[in-house]
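Re: the request from the purification team.
They wanted to know what the chain is likely to look like in 3D before they choose a buffer screen. I agreed to run a prediction and write the result into the notebook, where they can find it.
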Amino acid sequence: MTGSPPTTDTVEALVRHQLSLALGGRRGMVETAVPTLTFTVVWLTTRHLWLALGASVAVAVVELAARLVQRQTVKFCVNALVGIGIGWLFVHLAASRGGSADDQALAYFVPGLLYNIGYAVVMGLTCLTGWPLVGFMIGSVTGDPTAWHADRQIVRLCTRLTWLLVLPCAVRALVQGPVWLAGHSGNLSADTAVAALGVLKIAMGWPLQLAALGAMSWLLGRNHTPLQHGAGDPVSPARGQG
């Protein structure tokens, strides 16, 4: 089940609506965090990798079943399952290459690191090229995917918002990357590295995202740029505001 189309009159209200859908509320945050927490705790207490993977899948499936029974969106549960599946694939690749149990446990966190690096790079490039990704959120509603780009005020606003989305991913990569490298190289024990990565993945997940969204809300609250619906309609800035 998806949210109804937004009834907004300003660019800022539209972006706030789209971001609230992407966030998923407290339940969405929990559904993405608990499987990772389960994997970390089970691995550290049992040292049984496949049991830890199975437990994380089981938790995600229970979350999915609860959503289906309540006839609510399953997006965040599916995202968690996809994340676990990709992590499982990296674990399998590490095992096929003769990696130890420690190497395999560390491999589980590689997709998250690659995602954050890739996300930060791609989103950053959209800003540097003058086509910030947040702008296309506006285009998806107005009916013209690129009309917003004709207005410098909107481009400037969307660039700032996009950089705020880049920041959490960049911080995660810069903090978690050295921990993973230290565990993989043996400078840090595998147990310590896995524990640190599990805690950091949760602590730097939604909390950082919420901080970024808080900054975005503050920025959005300072401007009121009229939103024109319909393909080909200009999106013109409100004069004397912002």
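For the purification team: Residues 1-6, 229-242 have pLDDT under 50 and may be disordered.
Please add any questions underneath this entry.
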